Every structure is written in C-alpha cells, then in structure tokens.
Amino acid sequence: MVLIPAGPFEMGAAGTQALEDERPRHRVTLNAFEMDLYEVTTAQYGVFLRATGRTAPWQWETVSPAVHSDRPVIGVDWHDADAYCRWVGKRLPTEAEWEKAARGVDGRLYPWGNQVPTSDVANFALGARFSYSQVLMPVQSYESGKSPYGLYQMAGNVGEWVSDWYGANYYEQSPEANPSGPEQGQFKVLRGGSWSDLPKYLLTYGRFKLPPETRNSYIGFRCAKS
Which end of the chain has fewer CB atoms within 10 angstroms, the N or the C? Predict the structure, then answer.
C-alpha cells in the first residue's frame, strides 16, 4: 500500500467536456489514507476463497494459477469486493479517495498526466471477447502509466468498485470533508475504465454505475485503509 497524504484536491470536472454527473468541479479535503498499489489478483483472491468458502467469481473456472496469478481478479460483485477488503483488514476506497489517488492534486485528466492514452501507459480498447490470457495484463504492468502516488493501472485493465452508492447529482451537495456518497441507492460506483473501454472512459474523473450484484469481465477492485 502507499500513503495518500491528507489535504484538498479538485474533484470532478468543469465545462462541456464533462458529463452531467461529473460536474461541478469541486474542492474535497480528505484525511490521510492508504491505498493498494495494485489491483487485487487472482492469487490473492484464491487465498480468500479457500479460507472463507465464498462462492467463486464468474469465469473463475478458467483461471490457471500458474499463468494468471498476477492478473486482476474479475467476475466479483460489489459484495465480494467489500468482503475481501474486510477480510484482509482493509476496506473499499470511497469514490473521492479513489479519484485523489488516481489524479493527485494537479487536476490531471489521466493518472500519468494529460496525454491521451496509448498502449504504452494503459491496457484498453481491446474489444469485448474475454480471456484471462489475452485481455488482462499483470497488475504490475505499465510503469509509465502510474498515478502521482505510484499506483498502477488506475486507468484500464479492470474497472474498480468503490464503496459509494451512486448519486447523479451528488457532487452538487457533497460535503467538502471526506465525502462518502449518498446514504442509499440502486447502483454502486466504479472507477477507472477497463481493458475493453475507449480512451474517453479512462479519465480520472469518469464515473460509472452498476447494480452491486453485477459480475462481469470488466470489473475488479483494490482496497484502501484509513
């Protein structure tokens, strides 16, 4: 894990380029927290499954431990991700924590800066056909695509569950200090875009929403700690 220092940053985006739920750009101040450098891998998740007997993720039968141990786990719903983070003594990051960890305090568009994504910095735009070997990259890949705090693959590879419920207009009334999302909702927030997504979905402020029971090949997660 890496320490993300306490302090303010600008969350969201302004102007016509931003979608309605990404506006307004607003100041958020967070306490210090720690965040996983890497997405949770199949090897790590396998240990959790063996210890807890939890139902295996979607597509788990296609995992080859010898070949895919360093690939991010996919096919986990929000409850699986939440349970894993708790099991290792951590938690899912809030949406605000995730965005600060991805973009730092200079308002950058992508974890590596403002340059449009290329295959040198992120794993994206690979279509829709899934296989562990062909579309997912090891979690320690793309040294030049790291975030200001050194986190790997905060754009692409797998989209990541965060703790917050989704609120379309949450940014309009969100508290400045340590926002944690609406009290309830229908969808949970995901961040970061996946191996399948086009460049515009890799923006540090991009917001995605899905029902918490969703399991697919585009979603994984990483954990945080207060």
Answer: C
What three-state secondary structure class fits 99?
helix
Q: Name the DSSP letter for residue 201.
A: G
Place of tokens 């029902």: 211
- Give CA–CA dist 122/106, Å, rounded: 20
Spatial separation of the C-alpha atoms in residues 218 and 9, rounded to whole Å: 28
Query: What are the pLDDT digits (tens) for 161-220?
Result: 999 999 999 999 999 999 999 999 999 999 999 999 999 999 999 999 999 999 999 999
DSSP state of 4: E
Q: Write the burial class of residue 204 (CB in 10 Å: 0-12 exposed, 13-18 middle, 19+ buried).
A: buried
DSSP assignment string, 155-174 = SSSSEEEEEEEP-TTHHHH-
Helix, strand, or coil here: 224?
strand
Length of the chain: 226
Give per-residue pLDDT as tens, 46-71. Answer: 999 999 999 999 999 999 999 999 99
Q: DSSP character for 176?
A: S
Beta-bridge partner residues of 7 = 30
Half-sphere exposure of 174 (CA within 13 A, CB side): 32
Q: Hey, which bits of 12-77 come out as E strands?
A: 26-30, 33-35
- How far is C-alpha 159 from the chain's CA centre? 5
Could you tell me the two tokens for 111? 């974890």
**pTM, whole model, 2 decimals?**
0.98
d(CA 92, CA 76): 13
